[in-house]
Each structure stands twice: as C-alpha cells, then as structure tokens.
Specification:
The chain is α+β, with helices and mostly antiparallel strands. Helices cover 25% and strands 29% of the residues. Strand 5 and strand 6 form a beta hairpin. The radius of gyration is 19 Å and the shape is elongated.
C-alpha cells in the first residue's frame, strides 16, 4: 500500500519522505522486559476491583482456559517499558513511533483520538511477549478545535514466545500545533 493509499486517497506529497517510509513498515520490534507474572495480574485486577474468578482461582482458570491467563485488557501493560532499568540510556517511551511522528511532522502536541484492541491467544504467566509498531495511515493536514494537525493510526502487534499472535492495539492519534496567540 502506498502512502497515497494509506491516507484514504489524499495526496501524500506534503508528507516528509521519512514519514512516508514509516507507513506499513514494522518498527521497534522489541521483546518485553520481563516474563508475564501473576503479581502484575493480581495488582491490575485489584486496582479496578475485577473479581472474575478466572483471574484469581487456579481451578476456575484451569476449567475454563486451560490454566491461568492475564486479563486481555492488560495488553498495553506488557509493552510499556519501565521508566528506569539497569544499563538503559535515554528516555524510555512506550509507543515510540508516535513520538517520532510528532517530531518528523513538527506537531508538538497530541491526543489519543481512539484506541481499539483485538485479542488472539490468551497471555499466560511465563509468556515472553514481543511487540512491533506499524504506522497504518497518516492523514492530511486539517484544522481542528485544538489547532492544525494530522490524524495518524499506529498498530501495536503483540506475539508470544511461540510466535502466536496475542493481540493488536490500534491507536489513532491527533498530532497538532496550537494556534498562535
């Protein structure tokens, strides 16, 4: 798919070539920093008072899903880097592709316009996940109430250590520049 097609028919010639090259190209394929563990699952469920026995009772989990699983809604938890880690350098950001687009397109502000998730194989304790980010579209410049900007969509695809797809999160962002005062 060309940059022109990815913009649902709008002309991509106003996009910097660096942004055009990002479209439909897997970027930042990275393994998670740690294996999935039940402590994170319990903390997340407790934080939102999710008492579903599938996440708390090993016998229920075994009967329904063949063993413990993490709530599917935790998918984004697993790709967020720790703020600090031994040996890490520089600022560590989740969804780095989004920040790259803000810089390349010179749009310093941004908001999440929508977020969807599609789930595959369940995530289980001990799994080692890998994510990659794919820019699916970059829209034309447009005037919004927030300022002049563009919408872009990024898929975060996640697989487990067996190469099985566990899910995709789809982020649509609006990057913009505030009007001059």
């Amino acid at each position: 798919m060309s940059a022109r097609d990815s913009q649902t028919g709008s002309n991509a010639t106003d996009l910097p070539i660096e942004a055009q090259r990002m479209i439909d190209t897997p970027l930042y394929e990275e393994p998670g920093e740690f294996p999935i563990e039940l402590g994170y699952v319990y903390n997340s469920c407790a934080a939102v008072q999710n008492g579903n026995p599938i996440f708390w009772d090993p016998a229920v989990a075994e009967a329904i899903t063949g063993g413990p699983i993490a709530p599917p809604t935790m998918m984004s938890v697993w790709f967020r880097p720790h703020y600090w880690a031994p040996g890490a350098t520089g600022e560590r950001k989740a969804l780095q592709t989004h920040f790259d687009l803000k810089q390349i397109l010179d749009l310093p502000e941004a908001v999440v316009a929508s977020n969807e998730a599609v789930f595959g194989e369940p995530v289980r304790p001990g799994d080692r996940l890998t994510t990659r980010q794919i820019v699916r579209s970059i829209g034309p410049l447009k005037q919004t109430k927030l300022g002049t900007g563009r919408f872009w969509t990024i898929d975060v695809e996640t697989t487990n250590q067996h190469g099985e797809w566990v899910g995709t999160e789809i982020y649509t962002m609006l990057g913009y520049r505030r009007p001059e005062q």
